[in-house]
Design brief:
Two copies of one chain form a homodimer. The first copy, chain A, has about 220 residues and is α+β, with helices and mostly antiparallel strands. In chain A, about 55% of the residues lie in helices and about 10% in strands. Chain A has helices at about 10-25, 45-50, 70-80, 95-105, 115-125, 130-155, 165-180, 190-200, 205-210; strands spanning about 5, 30, 60, 65-70. At the A-B interface, β4, α3, α4, α5 and α6 of A face β4, α3, α4, α5 and α6 of B. Chains A, B: It is an enzyme of class 5 (isomerase).
Chain lengths: ~220, ~220
């Protein structure tokens, strides 16, 4: 298969790309990279040649001779590569900008501060316990969701933007999954919760769920 | 003036948008938001109405009736709004993807983990000293720059991509500025250093420097 996605079932960044591939109807080969087993397979020499940052996901499109990291860059690439299909980023410039900003509210302000490597570093550097790092992760998710819930009050419909499923929803659903792992009370976020439920009713989101991946454990 | 940028002189995310505005030749009003004085002006009620995440920058385009956060979303918006000018994101889909990925290597993997609010939280939560948080910030910059230096070996020229200045350079230069604040030895990164020097020789980058802003202190 010419499209490969190297990733980890629980990685929310990988999860985003799986949803995008499914929404676009793109067949792909999923190559598991276990972030915990074997000292972290993302540190293997083979993987580091694909992605010198030792992070997932990495996307390969052999037909176009491109190896790409960064989930949002991959999603935008998919949207441009399969441009005739359903759009993940709308066409009008102000709508495009709002979709990107909301996606980045998650991908820049929430996810990076609470991901696995950061939580491990807190344990190693500051002797943080598992409880400490759970509180840490929950803090940043709460801060981020507080702001997103407010933004959704002015613009959302069935999805983050009333027009259709976009890259913003693709980022929101994995972050909600992650929030539940950290026991965030989602009743505080009725709009986020409703949108996540509406998305999860779609087959593209269902198929992309962590528990439905071959490397889930 | 119809374009306003609310930001902070030392914020690297604000610095990125200043460079993009200058490269595009867009006149704008700069509205300082002091992140430290007065308990943090980003927490004021007036500012929180503009940006419920209490983060900088916030960009306002009155003519298009849009208020936008997230530096990369703002930069892409500027590139689409002033599409006839010099492009910050190239036209071909694989080049666009690579530029976005490199920009996100900085905006998602480096900057969020070492920004002011995170360093303050480390002090508050884990009793970290100023030295501790400096080591923390330097660690993530080093990890990120190690990977970026490797990527640049396969693609860079005078700038991150040999074709021209792009959004990747717009993200790289502020991150180099930040790295120097944390005393990173930039001799480890000859390509990053050369590219930053080449960019800084351009007026658009010079005018955008933190020390050249009205709120610099």
């Amino acid at each position: 298969m010419s499209i490969k996605l190297h990733g980890y079932w629980r990685s929310t960044a990988t999860y985003r790309v799986r949803i995008a591939l499914n929404l676009k109807g793109v067949d792909y080969e999923y190559v598991p990279v276990h972030l915990v087993a074997n000292g972290g397979e993302q540190h293997s020499m083979d993987y580091a040649r694909l992605n010198p940052a030792h992070l997932v996901p990495t996307f390969v499109d052999e037909d176009e001779d491109i190896i790409l990291n960064q989930s949002l860059a991959i999603i935008e690439y998919l949207d441009e590569r399969y441009a005739s299909d359903f759009r993940l980023i709308p066409e009008h410039k102000t709508e495009r900008a709002r979709v990107r900003a909301l996606a980045q509210d998650i991908a820049c302000d929430i996810q990076p501060v609470g991901n696995l490597r950061v939580l491990n570093a807190l344990k190693g550097t500051f002797n943080a316990s598992q409880d400490d790092v759970s509180v840490w992760a929950a803090h940043w998710i709460t801060l981020g969701f507080d702001a997103i819930e407010k933004r959704l009050q002015t613009q959302s419909g069935k999805y983050c933007f009333d027009f259709d499923v976009t890259m913003a929803d693709i980022c929101l659903v994995p972050q909600v999954y992650n929030a539940k792992r950290f026991n965030i009370d989602m009743d505080q976020y009725p709009l986020i919760s409703k949108i996540a439920d509406n998305c999860n009713a779609l087959e593209a989101f269902e198929k992309a769920k962590p528990e439905n991946q071959i490397d889930a454990s």
